[in-house]
Write a structure and sequence with these properties.
Layout (H helix, E strand, L loop, with lengths): L18 H14 L7 H9 L3 H8 L7 H10 L14 E7 L6 E10 L8 E6 L2 E6 L10 E8 L4 E5 L4 H11 L4 E5 L2 H8 L7 E4 L9 H11 L5 E5 L9 H11 L2 E4 L4 H13 L5
Parallel strand pairs: 1-4, 6-7, 6-8, 8-9, 9-10
Antiparallel strand pairs: 1-2, 2-5, 3-4, 3-5
Helix pairs in contact: 2-3, 5-9, 6-7
Length: about 280
């Protein structure tokens, strides 16, 4: 599979074409494959999974053809897309590459629908705004797959984990690594803040109580005022029901700095999945 920097984006849903010229090209493919003229409208309606009346409007030039529809017709008859679309360029999308136990963020070119995805080295399907890229041998039968090319891998997201007990950041790193997320581990807030000024952390997971008479409040304040007003911050605490932590203090932090608070022992697999969805299923380009 070729890996390179992707080219410009072309929408395969909204680009419209000269209807008369395109309709004649569609008819030519149908005729070439033995579809009688009386069956043209019905056949295209079936291929595109649209109503008969919508298909008829396309043949009468009352509705435009789109790249997506033309791609599906070409793929159905195993014809090159260029036979229907001049100067066709694949769409470029954010992707998640699954070829090992660890997902990787990427940008890739999405091509035509594939009729036999299990025969392809890699295929992709759309989930929300992201394209999931996986081997053809791992497909499911209930999903529509596309060809994929020019995959450009992106660096893994890096997050910061802070706890004065080094076992906690280590546990976070162990769990998050399986989600393709790199974790920088810290045991004091001063070191974290110093490194955060040069490292683009995409998430923070901070223990609230950091030794005797010290909390993460100062670190959170600096992150929000000097580094990022929107980067997600999760605060963990195991002392909500003790005298060490006042619920009102955490409530104030939530109101001032838009953080999330979770009690320890935290369900790290659940947190990792939440962070994974936040960091991987968003625009990266």
């Amino acid at each position: 599979m070729h890996i390179s920097k992707p080219t410009r984006t072309v929408s395969n849903k909204t680009m419209k074409h000269d209807n008369n010229e395109t309709t004649e090209k569609v008819k030519a493919i149908l005729n070439k494959h033995g579809v009688s003229e009386r069956q043209h409208i019905k056949t295209v309606a079936s291929i595109l999974n649209i109503a008969y009346v919508s298909s008829r409007q396309k043949f009468s030039s009352d509705r435009a053809w789109t790249n997506d529809q033309l791609s599906r017709i070409a793929a159905y008859f195993r014809e090159p897309i260029e036979s229907l679309v001049c100067n066709y360029r694949p769409s470029v999308g954010n992707g998640i590459l699954h070829v090992s136990g660890m997902p990787k963020r990427c940008v890739c070119e999405i091509g035509l629908p594939v009729t036999v995805p299990e025969a392809e080295e890699l295929v992709t399907y759309q989930e929300g705004d992201v394209f999931i890229v996986l081997p053809g041998s791992q497909i499911r039968n209930d999903i529509r797959y596309f060809s994929v090319s020019n995959i450009r891998l992106l660096p893994p997201p890096v997050i910061a984990a802070l706890d004065d007990n080094p076992d906690v950041p280590q546990s976070i790193a162990d769990v998050f690594s399986r989600k393709g997320i790199s974790v920088k581990q810290f045991v004091d807030s001063e070191t974290l803040i110093a490194e955060a000024k040069y490292e683009n952390f995409e998430y923070y997971i901070l223990d609230w109580v950091l030794g005797d008479d010290k909390t993460a409040e100062a670190a959170i304040s600096i992150i929000r005022s000097e580094l990022s007003a929107s980067v997600p911050i999760i605060v963990l605490t195991g002392e909500l029901r003790t005298d060490k932590v006042q619920d009102s203090d955490l409530a104030k932090m939530v109101q001032l700095y838009d953080i999330s608070v979770l009690e320890k022992p935290a369900l790290l697999e659940t947190i990792a999945t939440t962070v994974y969805k936040r960091l991987f299923f968003r625009s990266l380009r």
